[in-house]
Amino acid sequence: MSRRNAERLIVQGRVMVDGVPAGLGQSADPEKQVILIDGKPLPPQPELVYVMFHKPRGVVTTRRDSHGRPDIRQMLPKQLGYLVPAGRLDIDSEGLLIATNDGDLVQYLTHPSHEIKKVYNVQTEGNADRAVPVLRGSIVLDGVELSRAEVKKINNNHLQITISQGKNRQVRRMCGYAGLTVKRLVRVRVGTLDLGDLACGKWRHLTAEEVQGLRRQ
To answer: Is 18 a catalytic residue?
Structure first.
């Protein structure tokens, strides 16, 4: 289940550790302690799964969408089990998405304090030459000054933008602040992991080396 649903069970007193109600933030070892949910033993831990997915435009990252739009649940095989995306991509954006059932890795990759770098290729409309210095400078969103972005002009209105935060639609809002309209946005890198030549709409398992690389950042 999701982290939020697991926390809800704990708050409701439905999780017991060695006969005592569990508390939020508590640690427990399932190999040494008795963990019960609604009086039943905690199910065995599933095998850890790590996949890279090239999210197409028009697909939402959430696994439940009240508007009936296509989501990643429909794009990934059911046999992979319940996977959580490590970070989000809005419906109009494309590119690299990591999905896993390893909650610790998701927490590590998404927590702001770890400042995991994410690289985006952005096709824009507007005066890119004028916008680049603005994008590299001080930008305030929602009353918070962002960490400075790395910005390279690839050609004409094609930019590569690297950020280490994850505010909602951050790259799009940064471009708007700099006077640009985003025509296409593709995430091509998260930490040490590159999207490479993975085709749009396709997925693959991460190698053990790739997973270790993500952990060592």
So the answer is: no
